[in-house]
Amino acid sequence: MAFLLNRMRRMRKDEFSRRLMREHRLSSDDLIYPMFVIEGENQRQVVPSMPGIERVSIDLLVEEAKELVELGVPMLALFPVVEGDKKSLLAEEAYNPNGLAQRAVKAVREACPDLGIMTDVALDPFTTHGQDGIIDETGYVVNDVTVDVLVKQALSHAEAGAQVVAPSDMMDGRIGAIREALEAEGYIHTRIMAYSAKYASAYYGPFRDAVGSSGNLGKGNKFNYQMDFANTDEAIREVMLDLEEGADMVMVKPGMPYLDVVRRVKHELGVPTFAYQVSGEYAMQMAAFDNGWLDKDSVMMESLLAFKRAGADGILTYFAKDAARLLLSK
Ligand code: PBG
Questions:
Q1: What is the pLDDT of residue 220?
Q2: Among residues 170, 175, 154, which one has the least CA distance to residue 101?
Q3: pLDDT of residue 8
Q4: 227 lies in some domain
Q5: Catalytic residue list
Q6: CA neighbours within 13 Å on the CB side: how many for 329?
Q7: Is residue 1, in this structure, part of any structural domain at all?
Q8: pLDDT tens digit string along 143-198?
Q9: What is the spatial distance between Cα 278 and Cα 208, in angstroms, rounded to a whole number?
Q10: Strands (E), 88-200
Q11: Does residue 53's CB lie within 6 angstroms of at least one atom of ligand 1?
């Protein structure tokens, strides 16, 4: 070989040419930070299976929200952790106008009017059995009855000031029902982020510890409403339905093991597509970081960039604050 026409390493040689040919970038604009809120004042609780993540009372949540604004993170995703006496079979607490989530939304909106707040629309924090909906005598989650409650819950979030409601329950027809109710009540600007392709995943374990639903759920599972992780055509169909029913943004969840689905959704439908790097993905990486087996900053950024490469417009991640801080320091 006298000479090589194509030396791929030429462009990789220096930082300036690596920068010029870089196809994807991660910015703080891409991040959504999930947060757990509890009752009380000046309260923090660690979540053992999610090192670095705490459940905090509303006053501390507000302080953290201000930090997110400073870091340039556009939105937080709010998850209330309610006490046992607030849980019931009909999940009435879910739409209490003065409930924990509703009060937290109001407080954050007041302190940080420009920060996006996305609320979780699902009944699992409020049911005694930890399922996302209302069950019949056999334990089956009843679709249409549940949708009626989800509509009330979503309206109460919009009324409290949430700019984005995010149904994570996987009932059929809930996006359309929520959209119709929002329109009817005059909340025409409320955005819907649909957990469209939400798989029945074991990666949600640490989250269920964090919101305290794992004990209630016990050996129960969510197979008859969350998707079978063997499927991708079904994900496309779910996304199409949610869009037809009025979703503004769609989500794939979990994230890292499902980047093929993220790619299909973004490339086939070309709509605002988000992915959730869920609690189990966070926990397994943190375990390796804390053991010194992987380098936190590099692996965290590599994992988040991979979402962008797959086509995600944004990522829900428990690393949002750490990543935004790192991006600012560069
Ligand atoms: C509840 C909900 C779950 C997550 C977000 N909303 C858990 C579940 O469906 O059991 C999981 C988030 C995570 O694991 O980080 N509907």
A1: 85
A2: 154
A3: 96
A4: yes
A5: 198, 253
A6: 7
A7: no
A8: 999 999 999 999 999 999 999 999 999 999 999 999 999 999 999 999 999 999 99
A9: 11
A10: 116-121, 164-167, 191-198
A11: no
Which atom of ligand 1 sits closest to the CA of residue 169?
16
Q: How many domains does the chain have?
A: 1
Q: What's the gap between Cα 279 and its chain centre?
A: 10
Distance CA 111, CA 115 (A): 9
Considering the domain boundaries, does residue 217 fall inside one? yes
Ligand 1 lined by 320 (C-beta under 6 Å) = no
Range of the domain at 291: 25-329
- Ligand 1 atom closest to the Cα of residue 168 is 16
Q: Give the CATH number for residue 61.
A: 3.20.20.70
Ligand 1 neighbourhood includes 124 CB (under 6 angstroms)? yes
Q: How far is the CA of 120 from the centre of ligand 1 (A)?
A: 9
Residue 7 lies in a domain: no
Residue 120 Cβ inside 6 Å of ligand 1? The answer reads yes
Distance 79 CA to ligand 1 centre (A): 9
Which one of 127, 207, 213, 315 would you pick to mutate in the ligand 1 pocket, going by the greatest count of ligand atoms within 8 A of its CB? 207
